[in-house]
Amino acid sequence: MTDEPTKFSRWRRDMVEKQIIARGVSDPLVIQAMIEVPRHLFVSEALVDSAYGDFPLPIGEGQTISQPFIIAEMTQSLTLTGQERVLEIGTGSGYQAAVLSRIVYRVYTIERNNTLYLRTRKLFDRLKYHNIVTRYSDGTTGWKAESPFDAIIVTAGGNRIPEPLVNQLIEGGRLVMPVGGLHSQELLRIEKTSTGIKTVNLGGCRFVKLIGEHGWPA
Ligand code: SAH
Q1: How far apart are the first and last CA of the chain?
Q2: What's the rounded mean pLDDT across residues 24-32?
Q3: Active site residue 66
Q4: Would you kindly state where each structural domain of the chain is located, as residue ranges?
């Protein structure tokens, strides 16, 4: 992004310093990715000046893009090193997928809302994020043909972890997802081991609904 106004790169560095590093995110790959990805291009024109604020933002269709810190924390929790194939459920604005795409080999992302799916696919093309593969479907059943994945991130809240997603993780794979009720959830990080599932609770959070066969009803 050589022609971007310098105010955006300044705001972005500020965001990373004050909201992300200061709060304990230390993974250099996550920090670098968030310095790179132009978050203001993932929100509507009217919200460009709020894009680097410490809060979630509406992206249309009743959906939201998470606060930068939550994105950083979820991404860091996947303990990525660079060669992974990662599945995301809930493409939305595409920002989370874009951050992941700067770190890993390939990102597979699924969106159930057709308007968001089409809009964000175009944006990925425009920004030349060629290692992001998109799909329009119910992500709660995963993406069997491309499985298994090294890591899975679910960016909408459900009342349980969809079983197909666990099945589509490699042994040693990590999954992060908000789990709980409709109005508040706990961010869970699970690791699939040879003997079962190891779960860590990363704390309370609030996400939009995961709707689908293994989520909430529409
Ligand atoms: N990761 C997104 C967050 C978008 S909000 C971003 O960075 O902007 C969550 C998204 O999940 C919404 O776009 C919603 O339509 C989508 N969603 C909800 N249930 C889904 C499902 N079963 N499969 C795929 N997408 C789903």
Answers
A1: 39
A2: 98
A3: yes
A4: 56-205
Q: From the CB of residue 201, how many other CB atoms can be counted at a distance below 10 Å?
A: 10
56-205 carries CATH number 3.40.50.2300? no
Q: Which ligand 1 atom is at minimum distance from the Cα of 71?
A: 7
State both tokens at 128: 């030349």
Residue 204 pLDDT exceeds 70: yes
Name the active-site residue from 50, 66, 137, 147: 66
CA of 41 to the centre of ligand 1 (A): 18
The arithmetic mean of pLDDT across residues 35-61, rounded, is 97
Identity of the residue numbered 10: R
State the DSSP code for 140: G
- CA pair distance 79, 137, nearest whole angstrom: 27
d(CA 155, CA 152): 10
Residues shown for the chain: 218
pLDDT tops 90 at residue 184: yes
Q: Which of 166, 201, 204 is nearest to 184 (CA)?
A: 204
pLDDT beyond 60 at 70? yes
What's the pTM value of the predicted model, to 2 decimals? 0.97
Residue 119 parent element (H or E): helix 114-126
Residue with tokens 């079962």: 196
